[in-house]
């Protein structure tokens, strides 16, 4: 599964962004942020870079209103086995980022970039952007030509304009490559298959069926490239043909894929014209998408490869499309269905992505407790990995749940955000309560859940090697929940506090005091004569 998917994802061109040579992290983030400003490039802006070598297969290209959409992936990702099924999963362009002062040898930079781009065989366009070259590098680089693009030192506005020009050139180059691909594929069709096909044992009848399916799959793939080229009307024409051919051959998986593409084409074509009619159409088609992904499940392949991830992604896409408060009930039903499907996922990383997306969507709805629950599921998956980086990730995720569970650090509680009564009842401020009322709260399931959350934070902080976070979690447990903690448990927390204190610099202060709150009462003295 992929994170942050939406219905419009099918129209996004994946671009891998790679650091070449040594690039200081701060500068790499800065250059990447500059690229992110060009996630959408109007077709009208690339006409000066575009050359029509032969009649374009995109007969209804909206040059005045259309766009090319980009998804920049910093650091890249391994090739997906499902690239033939959904063309937007392919890395279609590679951009290298080089910081010339840190990499003075441009020949070495070119060699490194050539080596790095070979890992992305599906890339149709590649460029290496070299920033801040010196005078000698400018002279040397101008002789090399090729895909090395030098960005001379300049003010920010000039640099961004230069980058915009380069991205428009890349967009035009990709559009021309898409045209070539569709023209090449159209006469004879193209061989496309998925891991579902490679797992199946084909008899003679199935071989004949597979040949018949080839044309439908080729039409679906051409529709994908039309979408990537920013031509939804052409895409829809190919998808309509693909749907009919897939229906005739019982190719349920590709039928679902073509139907997904047609929904994306619908939304791109009606960009900015969303109404209840569009919502109903999307809802109707995506219900069919989910159903056909479910139909394509093959029992004998269940332990090796399954279309379940596509069914769940489609469910998340529909939930994200409908995600607003007035449709909360419908969205919750979709998210509940997706969460149930997590039990059948083979890959733990798929479960992690699924839980992250469910948590984000619940958060968008304003259902903070549900978002916190699924965030804890994410943290638990991280904690199953026995390494420090995973523990840091778990700790960061759990930190986002503390407000929902009312176990946040005292330093993070803002009186402006919480009503006075709520502050007084917050267990993090448990010291302000009478001992009897604290004990009664401890006996509730809510208090038990709060203790579990704090224990998870403590465990992740210890594994992550963060003594201050470990101290804070142990202190909150010991201070607010000591009546429910056994003597052995209290000793364990005391040890955690001691170990954290030993690792903290002298004089470090934590917002969470460790000792339980004790209320002192002034008793008047009575003197007898």
UniProtKB/TrEMBL annotation:
Main location: Golgi
Superkingdom of the organism of origin: Eukaryota
Trs120/TRAPPC9 TPR region domain mapped to chain residues: 330-499
Keywords noted in UniProt: Golgi apparatus
GO cellular component entries: trans-Golgi network
Domain Trs120/TRAPPC9 N-terminal as annotated: residue spans: 9-186, 202-268
Cellular localization per UniProt: Golgi apparatus
Record's protein name: Uncharacterized protein
């Amino acid at each position: 599964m992929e994170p942050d998917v939406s219905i419009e994802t099918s129209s996004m061109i994946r671009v891998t962004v790679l650091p070449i040579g040594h690039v200081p992290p701060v500068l790499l983030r800065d250059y990447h942020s500059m690229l992110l400003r060009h996630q959408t490039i109007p077709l009208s802006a690339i006409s000066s870079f575009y050359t029509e070598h032969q009649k374009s297969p995109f007969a209804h290209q909206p040059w005045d209103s259309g766009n090319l959409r980009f998804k920049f992936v910093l650091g890249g990702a391994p090739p997906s086995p499902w690239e033939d099924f959904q063309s937007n999963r392919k890395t279609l362009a590679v951009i290298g980022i080089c910081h010339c002062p840190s990499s003075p040898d441009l020949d070495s930079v070119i060699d490194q970039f050539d080596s790095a781009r070979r890992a992305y065989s599906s890339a149709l366009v590649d460029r290496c952007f070299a920033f801040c070259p010196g005078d000698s590098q400018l002279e040397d680089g101008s002789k090399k030509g090729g895909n090395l693009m030098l960005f001379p030192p300049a003010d920010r506005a000039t640099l961004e304009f230069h980058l915009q020009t380069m991205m428009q050139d890349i967009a035009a180059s990709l559009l021309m490559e898409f045209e070539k691909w569709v023209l090449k594929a159209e006469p004879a069709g193209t061989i496309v298959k998925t891991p579902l096909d490679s797992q199946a044992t084909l008899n003679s009848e199935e071989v004949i069926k597979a040949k018949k399916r080839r044309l439908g799959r080729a039409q679906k793939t051409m529709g994908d490239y039309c979408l990537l080229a920013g031509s939804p009307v052409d895409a829809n024409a190919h998808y309509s043909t693909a749907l009919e051919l897939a229906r005739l051959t019982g190719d349920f998986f590709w039928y679902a894929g073509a139907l997904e593409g047609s929904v994306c084409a619908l939304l791109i074509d009606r960009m900015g014209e969303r109404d209840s009619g569009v919502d109903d159409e999307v809802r109707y088609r995506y219900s069919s998408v989910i159903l056909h992904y479910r139909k394509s499940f093959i029992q004998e392949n269940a332990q090796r490869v399954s279309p379940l991830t596509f069914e769940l992604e489609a469910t998340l896409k529909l939930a994200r499309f409908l995600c607003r408060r007035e449709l909360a009930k419908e969205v919750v039903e979709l998210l509940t269905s997706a969460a149930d499907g997590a039990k059948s996922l083979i890959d733990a990383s798929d479960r992690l992505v699924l839980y992250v997306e469910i948590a984000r969507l619940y958060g968008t709805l304003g259902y903070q407790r549900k978002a916190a629950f699924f965030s804890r599921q994410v943290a638990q998956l991280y904690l199953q990995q026995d390494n420090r980086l995973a523990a840091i990730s778990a700790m960061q995720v759990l930190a986002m749940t503390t407000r929902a569970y009312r176990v946040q650090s005292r330093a993070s509680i803002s009186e402006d955000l919480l009503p006075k009564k709520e502050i007084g009842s917050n267990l993090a401020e448990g010291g302000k309560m009478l001992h009897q009322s604290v004990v009664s709260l401890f006996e509730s399931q809510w208090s038990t859940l709060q203790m579990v959350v704090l224990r998870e934070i403590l465990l992740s902080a210890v594994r992550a090697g963060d003594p201050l976070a470990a101290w804070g979690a142990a202190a909150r447990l010991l201070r607010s929940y000591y009546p429910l903690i056994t003597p052995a448990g209290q000793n364990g927390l005391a040890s955690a506090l001691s170990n954290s204190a030993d690792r903290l610099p002298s004089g470090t202060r934590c917002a969470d005091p460790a000792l339980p709150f004790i209320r002192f009462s002034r008793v008047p003295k009575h003197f007898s004569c």
